[in-house]
Predict the structure.
Amino acid sequence: MAKLSLNWSAFPPPYQSPRLTQTSPCSTLSIAKASKPIVVCGNPPTFVSAPGRRIVAVGDLHGDLAQARCALEMAGVLSSNGQNLWTGGDTVLVQLGDILDRGEDEIAILSLLRSLDIQAKASGGAVFQVNGNHETMNVEGDFRYVDSGAFDECTDFLEYLDDYGGNWEEAFLGWVGVSEKWKEDRKMFQNSWGPWNLVKKQKGVIARSILLRPGGLLACELARHAVVLKIDDWVFCHGGLLPHHVAYGIERMNREVSHWMRGLTDNDNDRPIPFMATRGYDSVVWNRLYSRDVSDFADYQNNQIYSLLEETLQAVGAKAMVVGHTPQTVGVNCKYDCSIWRIDVGMSSGVLNSRPEVLEIRDNTARVIRSKRDRFNERQVVDYT
């Protein structure tokens, strides 16, 4: 039986400075006819109003483009013809982080999601991403979990970017359409010039460092995303939100992480890493409190966790929370009267290579969409009441 202490001494005390007020300007996304507007507040996005929208949440992808495509096709937001077309209409898609590490198609997945976001907005929908612990680890320079192919993708992408004269937007949006060809060419070269593979690996580490260091082009792309996102009555984050996070200020945390990733500080020699969001076992991107198997705990411990969850949701004004981070071998599931949804199913081939599953939210009712067999075009819906 695992032991768990849940008295407040186990967590940092709430931040005592005045609580952050919601002062960031809000923007209205372009909308389709007959749709109410999606209103986004905060930079990066923190509070979103998406009236009448279907919301689809996808968990950790870890560099597996094929599985990512399967999940998005199951969710009804990606065409199945390989043309990378948005098919979700005014759906709102949320991806819960950990796109980086354990797989070799990380930039391609990020490119695909950005392309889908542009298309979704033209149809009255939107795509949002939250950063996970593997995004923050890479910006810190922690490359322990990087797949060798991902280092190569960084090298290839920098060369591709150079072909575009450094035009980030054009190169980044186009990468998902050409990345497979670059990968095939690179592997052919490696097979022909084996002795140069060590040099290629060193180039990959350098390329990744250039792209992902604070202020790097890919780090700045990640800085567009929040670590906590609230859409209507639902909160989305990678690990889990706790009461002291809310007391510190959700928008404040998002802004601090974004500024750190962009390399924006008052002193260029002092770039503090936002601890509350990215460091420690109870930080927003690392917290596993809500994702553990409830059988690991005694009843009184589960009651304490439930109380913490209720306190957090009440503080942020939400009905439920959706998290990733911890693979669920039983598939997408909910606990604590379905006030917490755990949607990381370990779908990447670098994790569990399990069948993709996604969470769909309509009118505050959640259900799981999963493949009926191994054929991802057959959808099975599981309702939770």
Observations:
- DSSP finds eleven helices and 14 strands in the chain.
- The longest helix spans residues 168-192.
- Residues 281 and 287 are 6 Å apart (CA to CA).
